[in-house]
Every structure is written in C-alpha cells, then in structure tokens.
Amino acid sequence: MDDKRKKFVSVSADFPGPNTLALLDRRKQYVPNGVGNTTPVFVQKAQGALILDVDGNVFLDFAGAIGTMNAGHCPPEVVLAVQKQAEQYIHTCFHVAMYEPYVALAEKLAEITPGHFPKKTILLNSGAEAVENAVKIARKYTGKPGIVSFTRGFHGRTLMGMSLTSKVKPYKFKMGPFAPATYKAPFPYPLHRPAGMSEEDYALFCVRQFEDFLYTEAAPEELAAVIMEPVQGEGGFIVPPAAFVKGVYDLCRKNNILFIADEIQTGYGRTGELFASTIFGIEPDLITLSKSLAAGVPISAVTGRAEIMDAPSPGEIGGTYGGSPLGCAAALAVIEKMERENLPARARSIGQTIISFFSGLMQQYPEIAEVRGLGAMCAVEFLDPATRKPLKELVSRLVQACYRSGVVLLSAGIHGNVIRFLTPLVITDDQLQEGLDIIAESLALIVNGEAAEIS
Fold it and tell me: Is 447 helix (H, G, I), strand (E, B) or coil?
C-alpha cells in the first residue's frame, strides 16, 4: 500500500529503530530465551487498536495481546475504574480481608454466563490457573480422576495445562513427565473431512469417534470431566460442527461426566456472542475465563454450577493474589462496556469483513486453503495447492512482512500455517480495512515477488 494512502500506520524504513535495538540488547541480556516474542516491538503507548512504539512507529494491532484486548487498549472507563480502586486499596488478599468487588464480579458472572441454574465463581490470576482449578473442582465433586481434552487443544503452560495441551513443540518438548489420568480425544477439522462426506455426516462421524473413545481409551466411570475450547485457539481457530459440540455435551450428561468450556479465548464477545457456548446451545457445568475479562489486567475465573463449585472445602482452592481488587474493578468496567456498546454484535461485523475480504482473494492465491471463523475469531489457512502440505514458511514470512509494514499479526495451528485475527472489537472500519490491505499487499509481495495494487 502506498504510504500516502495510510491513515493510521506509520513505520520508519529503519525499523527497528535505535531505542528498540537498545532495549533488544537489554532483553537478550536479562530475559530468558524461552520467553518468546513474535515481533521486535517495544510499546510506549497503546490506545484502541493502535500501538505506538518507543521509536514513534504506529502499528495496527491485529493480535490483541493474544485475544486479551477485546475492549481495546486502555479503554477510558476501565482506566478510570482501576485508578479509583487503586486509590482505595490495592490488595488485602480475599482469604484474609474480603472486599466487595470480588463478590460483585462473581455475582455478575453468574448472571451473564450460559446456564439457567445457581452459579458460583472463584477468581484467580491467569487462564492456566483457571484450568488447574476447574480440574481440581471437577475431581473433588465427582471423586473421579480422569480428564479428557482434545487434539490441537491448548489449555496453558502449567503442569496440568501442558498435560491437557496437544501441541508438543514449543509447549511440551522435554518438559515431561506430565500429569496422569489425562486423555486426548479426536477433534473435528472440517477442512480435512473425508472427500465426499457431507458436513452433517462428518459431524455424526466425529461424535461416534468420541463415543468409541469412551470404550477404547477411557471409561466414563473414571472420568471427572471433558474440557473443550468451543473454538480451538492456538490449534488454528478450528470451528467444530455444532452437532459435534452438542453431541459430546450430551454424552457427558448421559455418562455423568462434567463438561468444562474453556472460554479463555472465545469469551467476551470474540465469537459474536458474549460466550461461544451460547452459539453451540450448551450450558457447561464449569467455564474458565481470562484474557479479555479485564482488558489486560491479570485476572481469571472459574464459574460453574453452585453445587459443583461448593465441593472443595475452605482453603482447598484459591491463592494469594486471586481476584485482585484491581482486576475485579477492571472486569466489571469491561462487562459494562461490552453491554453498553454491544461489542459482540461488532465482532460479527468485523468477522464478516475479514471473511469476505480473504474469500475474495482465494481465486488469486490458491495457497489460501480455507477462510474460516466465528464472529471476529477468524483465520486463514495456507496449504501448498499441489501437495496440500502446510505452508509454515509462507505464514512466517507474512507475519514478519506485516509487522514491518505496520500490522501486528499472529500465526496459529499445529503446523504454524494459519494466520489468526484477534483485533480489538473497538477497531474502526477504516482501521480494519487499512490493516487488511496491508496484509494483502504483503501476501502479494511474498507469493508473487512484486507488489499488487490493492483497491
């Protein structure tokens, strides 16, 4: 895209600049290699869908801190709520001296999460911690040890999180042994359904696979819970057939297995509803939440049926910083913003634009194997048109070309051959279009070796 046509993005030709290079040297000296970074960007300020770096470059944020910024960077109402809370008290530890924001957020989550039954909530610090506690609660309530997750699923980097996560590199390689009594069931991949099989038959086939799994891999009598991302995140933004999700959910009901919906990335409007479970017509026993829960302030939650949540005795779940007052204040402000501005509806509009844009490029670029998504949780998968092998290198080059041109973008998928979109839901139409044009131009440069005129 001609620089004269860019309204929001501004990246110097010598990026990364001198301030960034100096910080990179310090980062290499003091921060471990294992802390990965997808871009060499050091942020000075962020607002809405824009990031300003320490050298004055301006980027469009299509990554949203891995889905944390649904409400945008620094929403004024959230900033104000955190400031007000910090002036009163920052931390007292809910286990020692309780505070009203914790109760207020638990009450609000009981109201807005799927399920017409009494609910309770424990507040924690991170998504992985929410998963750990959901597993503990499920085991305590059922008295059973087994936990089932799915191929390509991602549930965190803690011991239990790794055990439930499917991708070996970089998350599990040489990190074992892992937690026992964890199992992986097959998860649909509609792009790769057998030739000639209808979508309906494929969904039924996948449900039967899960039913067989309960005979061949893990007996229901030993299973406490199934944990599922309604749409797989790190696995490649795989949208399963609704009949599969409902079929697994019904089998859990039939076999006295709890159903845990991991809505850490799908929650808070990303998929076009406040929670993706609503789209699939299920009422999970437990829901794990984090990421966009508080617009970047660290907090997470497990919300579930009251009788299940009450299974652990006092002191058996919790943590020193769990449900910090600052996180609670931020989360309450985010929920109010979501409801007031109807950000789930905005997500649907963003998703339609992204899917339409890339669907229009599929004929021009046969490397685009599929454009998919639910709401604003969209992805584009790249395969070699001749061999159908994943084009990981192309995607890696595309991500690099995009941030050098002013769009922060992430890859995903087991093979790293998917670009995923996690734009803040407050992104404007003009910002979204500019970012999409930059991505399309970067793709043209990589595939064709020359710039393409983007209308």
Answer: helix
Q: Is the pLDDT of residue 454 over 60?
A: no
d(CA 168, CA 118): 38
**Rounded CA separation 43/205 (Å):** 47
Beta bridge partners of 103: none
Question: Is-cis flag, bond preceding 190, omega within 30?
Answer: no
Q: Which two tokens stand for residue 287?
A: 């829901």
**Rounded distance, CA 173 to CA 224, Å?**
27
373, β-bridge pairs:
378
Look at residue 169 in the predicted model and tell me its pLDDT.
Answer: 79
Give the whole-angstrom CA distance, residue 243 versus residue 198: 13
User: pLDDT grade, residue 448 (50/70/90)?
Assistant: confident
Question: Are the CB atoms for 136 and 124 separated by under 8 Å?
Answer: no
Helix (H) or strand (E) holding 150: strand 146-150
Kindly indicate the confidence band of residue 455, based on its pLDDT and cuts at 50, 70 and 90. very low
- Which DSSP string do the residues of 229-274 spell out, in sequence order? -SSBTTTT-B---HHHHHHHHHHHHHTT-EEEEE-TTTTTTTTSSS
Domains, the chain, ordered by start: 3-67+343-448 (3.90.1150.10), 76-341 (3.40.640.10)
Distance CA(369)–CA(384), nearest Å, equals: 8
Give residue 452's identity as a one-letter amino acid code. Answer: A
Rounded Cα gap, residues 248 and 228, in angstroms: 10
